[in-house]
Design goal:
The complex is a heterodimer. Chain A has no helices and eleven strands. Chain A is an all-beta fold. The radius of gyration of chain A is 13 Å and the shape is globular. In chain A, 41% of the residues are buried. By secondary structure, chain B is an all-beta fold. Chain B has no helices and nine strands. Chain B is globular. Chain B starts with 8 loop residues before the first strand and ends with a strand. The chains are: A mainly beta, B mainly beta. Chains A and B meet through β5 and β10 of A and β3, β7 and β8 of B.
């Protein structure tokens, strides 16, 4: 069955960097777009970023553009989110999720368990 | 502030029918993009329960149904059960980006 396992979260000071990773199994990873979605404590879901099946295109929510970078390694079945210049307002549980298609314009049909990133001095 | 608006909360007694609206505009639902629905229990990841307005993934109970009307979509839960108490989110596409609704808390009285 489809499995997505995130890692790399933790507590970090404002302005520092953190890399999240998501390991995928149970499906042909290279055939699916992948998303990152976050949820601040007590708040709703916020879409963060998407990367196409082949890694050729990425898109971001405005609030993280220029600070976050999504990448993937189809040989290792992993997708990463590099977060630079972290802010207190980036504190959230971060989920990776599989798109139903190649280009990240479909439904998010499988989700990881989530990983907490806490930005605090 | 999300471009997809949902009521903050809805409630109903066991066995009743409740509906959750997801109101968009001409750049998302009105532009022809699909709407999908997710259920989330506290401390857990969201789960897809309706895709492309009306379709249920395997294993989702028939009491969950979806519909579309103009620039809005709706999720209905018929025969409400205690285990349906959760947060529900709609999701669509807007200006080439994925967007989520504001979320609705369903309470079973």
């Amino acid at each position: 069955q489809v499995q997505l396992v995130e890692s790399g979260g933790g507590v970090v000071q404002p302005g520092r960097s953190l890399r999240l990773s998501c390991a995928a199994s149970g499906f042909t990873f290279r055939n699916f777009g992948m998303h990152w979605v976050r949820q601040a404590p007590g708040k709703g879901l916020e879409w963060v970023a998407v990367i196409w099946y082949d890694g050729s295109e990425q898109s971001y929510v405005e609030s993280v553009k220029g600070r976050f970078t999504v990448s993937r390694d189809n040989s290792k079945n992993t997708v990463d989110l590099l977060m630079n210049s972290l802010r207190v307002e980036d504190t959230a549980v971060y989920y990776c999720a599989r798109d139903s298609g190649f280009y990240g314009a479909g439904t998010l049909d499988n989700w990881g368990q989530g990983n907490l990133v806490a930005v605090s001095s | 502030q999300s471009v997809l608006t949902q009521p903050p909360s809805v409630s109903g007694a066991p066995g009743q029918r409740v509906t959750i609206s997801c109101t968009g505009n001409s750049t998302n639902i009105g532009a022809g993009y699909d709407v999908h629905w997710y259920q989330q229990f506290p401390g857990t990841a969201p789960k897809l329960i309706i895709f492309a307005f009306t379709n249920r993934p395997l294993g989702v109970p028939e009491r969950f149904s979806g519909s579309k009307s103009g620039t809005s979509a709706s999720l209905a839960i018929s025969g409400l059960q205690a285990e349906d108490e959760a947060e529900y989110y709609c999701q669509s596409y807007d200006n080439s980006l994925t967007v989520f609704g504001t979320g609705t808390r369903v309470t079973v009285l």
